[in-house]
Amino acid sequence: MEIHFYDSQLSVPADVDQYYGWVDSIRAVNAKTEQIHTTQMGLLQTALFEHGYRIFVHPYDDEPYEIKLGVNDCTDREIKPENNLFNLWKAGEFF
C-alpha cells in the first residue's frame, strides 16, 4: 500500500484520483485503501507505517521522495516511530 502526499494542488497530475478533504483522506487510510493521493500534509505521520503504507512526498518544485523508518536518502536524520513527520516536513528536514 502507498500514500502519496502532494504539498501543492498544482503538483498533482491531472490523471490521478485524489482525496481532497481531510475526512475523506482519513477514511481512505482507515479503510486501508491500496493507493492514496492527497494534499492533506497534516496526515504525514509514522502511524501510517503501522497501517502498512509506504510514504511518498511530491514537492511542487522537486523530485518525489520516499520516507521510511531508519536511514533515508531524503534526510540526514534517522526516522524513528516516535518522530513527528509532519513537523519534520514543515521544518524542511527532507530534501
Helix percent reads 10-25%
Order of helices and strands: EHEHEEH
Total helical segments:
3
**Spatial gap, N to C terminus:** 23 Å
Topology, number of strands: 4
Q: Structural class, judged by helices and strands?
A: alpha/beta
Compute the gyration radius: what is it? 12 Å
Number of domains: 1
What fraction strand? 15-25%
Describe this structure in words.
A hairpin with a 6-residue loop joins β3 (54-58) and β4. The chain has one domain. The protein has helices spanning 22-30, 47-50, 85-90; strands at 2-6, 35-38, 54-58, 65-67. It is built from three helices and four strands.
Describe this structure in a few short sentences.
The chain has 95 residues and is of the alpha/beta class. It has helices spanning 22-30, 47-50, 85-90; strands spanning 2-6, 35-38, 54-58, 65-67.
Give a topology summary.
Blueprint lengths: L1 E5 L15 H9 L4 E4 L8 H4 L3 E5 L6 E3 L17 H6 L5
Parallel strand pairs: 1-2, 1-3
Antiparallel strand pairs: 3-4
Describe the structure using short key phrases:
single chain, alpha/beta, 4-stranded mixed sheet
